[in-house]
Design goal:
Layout: H1 13-20, E1 25-29, E2 32-35, H2 36-52, E3 61-65, H3 70-82, E4 85-89, H4 95-105, E5 109-112, H5 117-127, E6 131-133, E7 155-161, E8 169-174, H6 175-188, E9 196-199, H7 206-219, E10 222-225, H8 231-241, E11 245-248, H9 250-257, E12 272-276, H10 282-289, E13 295-299, E14 309-311, H11 313-316, E15 325-326, E16 331-338, E17 341-347, E18 354-355, E19 359-360, E20 368-376, E21 382-387, E22 392-394, E23 397-399, H12 401-408, E24 414-424, E25 428-437, H13 445-453, E26 464-467, H14 481-485
Parallel strand pairs: 1-10, 3-4, 3-5, 5-6, 9-10, 9-11, 11-12, 12-13, 25-26
Antiparallel strand pairs: 1-2, 7-8, 13-14, 14-15, 16-17, 17-20, 18-19, 20-21, 22-23, 24-25
Protein name: AMP-binding protein
Domain AMP-binding enzyme C-terminal: 403-478
GO molecular function: medium-chain fatty acid-CoA ligase activity
Length: 491
């Protein structure tokens, strides 16, 4: 892979690529192209603004609220130079969920794009948080270069993920973690400066940011950045912009495959379509394979980079359903394996060591316990067969049942409730909830749905409701969630 030999620090990646090929295009966005030299200058300029005018210092956090935008990437590298960290907020969350994250990690500033200006101003007002428009970062402000304080050990990215108790926690990615993930992911995907990578998934997730976007910049490739996914814009991109790689999830793959343009769309520029999902519906994979494009897969978690196990193009056609083999520098083992199935444990330089502010993410030996159950084939490939942590994954979003249960349980009509995942053709899984009502209360799905709608993100809202007299429990009173999934749910 033709990458500069001096890519030894995360914050220095744009400058290293600018030295290699200053005229090469780093980003294409909204009809405009940004060369690597311009990208590197923007990162340096914004670092100066952050330091001189905003007072950002090592260890500080700056939040981002918006769709995919070049300003988010510039801000990330600028913060890295200072030794500060970016907190990308999931725009799909409810305002109350943003409030909880802002209160938890206390960013010093909030940056937004135009589409999320009103929400950002309201969020800033609720927390007395200075708010800035992304485009203002590029204005000509007298800002001398910021001093370089960032190191491999500096926190640079905080990404919230569902915790085992239902309370979201922020995985703290250091510059060393991100650099290792870029190196590993670029190597496995065989990225070169000649690649054109179409980023359509949201960069508030490590999937959209770290599986292809940052590795592409590490490789000196061009990132074709879309504000968000839509099937129509994706087909235009495939046919007009000629990407060589793209990343999708089952929900977006289904939107493409079901679209009227799918049978005749020109996909000839794609040498692979990668997917960020532990479980891929075989029907979707075969539909893409039928168009001559191998579907490769990445297994990982918010805490693991997430590039951990990968199914490359050479095995994609004959390993449908598998996650592939451990990526370079990644150690994998199965804990408490029985009949060839055990909990998947990962250890690698791209795995975070802590959650915010200082909660251990790994065990004493550095292993991250994924909570996923996997089988190991004789050829060394891994397949995910279940989830010990009971997460619901709907449309690429992780949802912990306790997040829903804790809110729904506050409704005066609800005595007990339990959320669980059920198969769904469009989203992979949909949220279902079993409800035990208090005596004298009537089953009113509309009222309970409205109660949740103002408190949870839309993708977390139940699509199936089940009214039961009691939740299935063990003799010790522990919920048998697996028994819930076997019950019939209402449409």
């Amino acid at each position: 892979m033709a990458v500069p030999s001096d890519l030894s620090e995360f914050a220095g990646v744009p400058a290293a690529q600018a030295r290699r090929a200053p005229g090469a295009v780093a980003l294409e966005f909204d009809g405009a192209a940004l060369g690597y030299a311009e990208f590197a200058r923007a990162c340096e300029h914004v670092a100066g603004v952050l330091w001189t005018h905003w007072g950002v210092r090592p260890g500080d956090r700056v939040a981002w609220l918006g769709a995919n935008h070049p300003g988010q990437l510039v801000l990330l590298f600028a913060l890295a130079r200072i030794g500060a960290a970016l907190l990308p907020l999931n725009f799909r969350l409810a305002p109350a969920e943003w409030d909880a994250q802002v209160a938890d990690c206390r960013p010093t500033r909030l940056v937004h794009d135009d589409a999320w200006a009103d929400a950002a101003l309201q969020l800033g007002a609720r927390h007395t948080l200075p708010v800035h428009r992304a485009q203002a970062l590029g204005e000509q402000i007298d800002a001398p270069p910021a001093p370089v304080h960032g190191t491999d050990a500096s926190a640079v990215l905080l990404v919230y993920t569902s915790g085992t108790t239902g309370r979201p926690k922020a995985a703290v990615h250091t510059q060393g973690n991100l650099l290792a993930n870029m190196r590993i992911a670029a190597q496995v995907q065989r990225m070169t400066p000649g690649d054109r990578v179409a980023t359509m998934l949201p960069m508030f997730h490590v999937g959209g940011l770290c599986i292809q976007t940052l590795p592409a910049l590490y490789a000196g490739a061009t990132v074709i950045l879309h504000p968000r996914f839509s099937p129509d814009s994706a087909f235009v991109c495939f046919e007009r912009d000629r990407p060589t790689l793209t990343l999708q999830v089952p929900a977006t793959m289904k939107a493409l495959v079901d679209h009227p343009r799918w049978p005749g769309a020109d996909l000839s520029s794609l040498r692979a379509m990668w997917a960020g999902s532990s479980l891929l519906p075989a029907s979707l994979v075969r539909a893409v394979h039928a168009r001559g494009v191998p579907v490769c897969n990445v297994y990982g978690a918010t805490e693991t980079g997430p590039f951990s196990i990968a199914l490359g193009p050479e095995a994609a056609m004959d390993h449908v359903g598998s996650c592939g083999w451990p990526a370079p520098e990644v150690d994998v083992r199965l804990k408490d394996a029985k009949d060839g199935v055990g909990e998947l444990l990962l250890r690698a330089p791209n795995v975070v060591s802590r959650y915010w502010p200082d909660i251990a993410a790994c065990d004493a030996d550095g292993w991250f316990h994924t909570g996923d159950l996997a089988s190991l084939a004789s050829d060394g490939s891994y397949t995910i067969v279940g989830r010990a942590k009971e997460l619901i994954i709907s449309g690429g979003e992780n949802i912990h049942p306790a997040e829903i249960e804790s809110v729904l349980g506050e409704h005066p009509a609800v005595l007990e409730c339990a959320a669980f995942g059920v198969p769904d053709d469009a989203w992979g899984e949909a949220v279902a909830v079993a409800v035990v009502l208090r005596e004298g209360q009537a089953a009113d799905q509309d009222a309970l749905a409205a109660f949740l709608a103002g408190r949870l993100a839309r993708y977390k809202l139940p699509r199936r409701w089940l009214w039961v007299e009691a939740l299935p429990k063990t003799a010790l009173g522990k919920l048998q969630r697996g028994a819930l999934a076997a019950l019939r749910t209402s449409p």
